[in-house]
Amino acid sequence: xxxxxxxxVGRSILIAQRGQEVxxxxxxxxxxxxxxxxxxxxxxxAAEAAIAKAGAIDPAALRFLPPMATIGKIICVxxxxxxxxxxxxxxxxxxxxxFLRTQEGVIGHGASIVRxxxxxxxxxxxxxxAVIGKGGRRIPMERAFDHVVAYSVFNDGSIRDWQFKGxxxxxxxxxxxxxxxxxxxxxxxxxxxxxxxxxxxxxLNGKVVQDANTNDLLFQVPELIxxxxxAMTLKPGDxxxxxxxxxxxxxxxxxxxxxxxxxxxxxxxxxxxxRNPIIDEPAA
Length: 284
What we know:
Blueprint: E1 2-8, E2 11-18, E3 21-24, H1 34-39, H2 41-53, E4 56-57, E5 63-65, E6 74-78, H3 82-87, E7 97-101, E8 106-107, E9 113-115, E10 122-123, E11 126-132, E12 148-155, E13 158-159, H4 160-163, E14 179-187, E15 199-204, E16 207-213, H5 221-231, E17 239-241, E18 263-268, E19 272-280
Parallel strand pairs: 6-17, 8-14, 9-19
Antiparallel strand pairs: 1-2, 1-5, 1-14, 2-3, 3-4, 6-7, 10-13, 11-12, 11-17, 12-14, 15-16, 15-18, 18-19
C-alpha cells in the first residue's frame, strides 16, 4: 500500500498510488493520516477497498505534502556507504553516525528546495527512509523489522559550508525547506526486508550524479534501530534517514552544487521518485 497527503482546492486530502495512477481518498471514511492507516488492520482493509474503486486524479493538480500527518524524530545517518565515507573528509565509521533534523526543514514532493541567501553550497543527498510503526527501547536486531511499518524517500539537502563550520553538522543539515520527503509511505510488506537490494539514484537536471544499491549500506536498518534505541526510545512516527552513497556535490572536482532553476530527483527502486525544483531564497 502506498499512501500520502496532498493539498487540493485549499484542503489536505489523503491520496494513494494505484499502479501508475494517483487516486484521491478524500471521499472515503478514513483519517488524513497514512501512518495511522498502516498501523490499524481495519483501516488498512478499508483503505484497500477505497483505493480499488477511487477515481484517478491529475498529480499536477496537487500540492504534495510530506506523507505523514505527524513526523516524530527525524534520525539521520551519516557516512553510511563506504564510497561516500571515502569521498568525505572523515574516516569510515566503526559505529553509526547519527544526527537529527527538524521538521521545519521538511517539504513534500514537488515543493521548492530553497537555497539560502547565506550560501551557494546547497548539496543533494539521496536516501531511503525507514518509518517506525512500533516503538521500543533496546530493540534487538533480530526483532527490528517488527518495528518498521513503511519506507519512503528523502533528499537530505545540506548547506556544506555551514555543515563544516564545526564538528557538529546540525546547522548545515537544518536550513528551512531543504529536506524533501515522500511522495508516499510504502508499506513494509511491499519492500524487501530492510529495503535491501534496491537501486538508489539521484539525478540533477536529468544527469545521474549518484547511483548505488542499498546492499552497500555499512549499517543496515536492523543495526540502526538496535543502536539508536539503546540511547533513546523509538516511537511510532519516528523516521530513520539511512544515509547517502557517493557522488555528492561537495566531493566533486569542481564541486557541483544545486542552484536556482535546477531540478533534483531521488529515486529508490520500488519505493518511489521524489522530484523537487530549486529556487533562491527571496531577498528580505
